[in-house]
Amino acid sequence: MRALVTGGAGFVGSHVCEALLAAGHEVVAVDSMISGTPSNVAGIARHPGFRLLRRDVSTGLSTSLVGEVDLVLHLACPASPADYLAHPLETLDVSSRGTRSALDVARACGARFVLASTSEVYGDPLVHPQREEYWGNVNPVGPRSVYDEGKRFAEALTAAVRRAEGVNTGIVRIFNTYGPRMRGHDGRVVPTFVRQALDGEPLTVAGDGSQTRSLCYVDDLVEGLLRFASTDDPGPVNLGNPEELTVRQIARDVIEATGSTSPLEQIDLPADDPKVRCPDISRARELLGWEPKVRWREGLQRTVAWFREARGAADEGAA
Ligand code: NAD
Ligand code: UDP
């Protein structure tokens, strides 16, 4: 099989490319590097089955550019609030025009298409945990809407192209995922706290830290995503780890895992910050026989180990 992975040099995308190559497939990754970096795929750059193209998918993709493919995984989109707030229009573009061009490649090739959507389509949810049937509670004009509404549009487009043009599309709704290769400065809670703890800086807890998130280790997410890609199911299917934690607890666990003496510091809660988030993964269990295997403390240890190693390598490079 030959797969196109948009956003393939991002955090999740780079792990997806690796997993596809390890399973014996060929991969063409397309990435604009707006929030990704070639160093994420440095380990597979010389693999004979791998190609990385630096392109903005919002300005169009074609089979003459990427070649024939059997699978399109559309992951391109800034995903950290810090990134999509810094690039609001690019975020809307990649979810609209970018999704359209990725869908066009799938149609031209007769390929399976999978959209990486998000738990953010549920907004600040009034139903807890979130099932796929829930339609969400999103502020359409708030600062986060570029991401939330962008993904809601991408879902609508994906579903419409399946109905109108018969493309074999599917939608996964990914809940907060963490692990190696997240950037220490990407603004998301786990890499931010780990970097702060390792630097001896205060851990910046937003609001009173009572808001919850459910954190999935990246290897589990990739396994669920690839299992879903091998079906013809339209989704949406939630992929996430139902182990729900308060942000304050996440901060405490990071302090413990790093052995840091950093204090916690309260910062302002961002606008429209969801108060709770936890996936109901019954559908993924039934359809894919999938559930996360890596418990939070274990995934956190692995992530801290990676951050330590990456910093060691950077220090050696500088010396
Ligand atoms: P990321 O920012 O690390 O990766 C996104 C990648 O897409 C980056 O490499 C970026 O450069 C690339 N990209 C963005 N716009 C592009 C464009 N116009 N053309 C080409 N490339 C473009 O984020 P991530 O965490 O790896 O997220 C990957 C996907 O998974 C995103 O679609 C995101 O919405 C979705 N998702 C992630 C999470 C999570 O917790 N990591 C949760 C829900 C959904
Ligand atoms: N958060 C925090 N401190 C930080 C970064 C994030 O307390 O330095 C909080 C954030 O306000 C939110 C939660 O952690 O309540 C998860 O934020 P993240 O940006 O990782 O993801 P999202 O809000 O998209 O779920």
Q: Short description, anyone?
A:
Keywords: Decarboxylase, Glycoprotein, Golgi apparatus, Lyase, Membrane, NAD, Signal-anchor, Transmembrane, Transmembrane helix. The protein is an alpha/beta fold. It has ten helices and 13 strands.
Give an overview in words.
The chain has 10 helices and 13 strands. With 319 residues, it is of the alpha/beta class. The protein has a domain of 223 residues: Rossmann fold (3-Layer(aba) Sandwich), CATH 3.40.50.720. The strands form 4 sheets. The chain has a 7-stranded parallel β-sheet, with helices on both faces. Strands 7-10 form a two-stranded parallel sheet. The chain has a two-stranded parallel sheet with strand order 8-13. The chain is globular and about 55 Å long. The model has no long low-confidence stretch (mean pLDDT 97). The structure holds nicotinamide-adenine-dinucleotide and uridine-5'-diphosphate. Nicotinamide-adenine-dinucleotide binds next to α1, β2, α4 and β5.
